[in-house]
Amino acid sequence: MLAAVTALDEGRTPERPVLREAVRTLLAALAERAPGRSVEVRVPPYGAVQCVSGPRHTRGTPPNVVEMDPATWLAVATGRLGWTQAVAGGRVRVSGSRADLSAHLPI
Asked: At a CB cut-off of 8 Å and minimum separation 6, what does 27 contact?
């Protein structure tokens, strides 16, 4: 994970396997920190998790979705970019009343 974050900090693009592993590691950490199934966090093409306690989603499109690109996820998850700033800047797409992850970030 450190290699991916360092590359992004230096303005370089991490190698795909390094970026994929970093994204998945931080998504797993979020799921541990905020267990539940009421919000789906998507970081295409590398992964998605369900997290945050509350009403459980079971079929179809989830009502509470958070989606962003891998670089934004690493920045938000590690505190390099604030949640509010990322959402306001359009780097994070959110839908649903429970899709605010600010209480769970940075990891």
From this structure: 41, 43, 47, 48, 49, 73
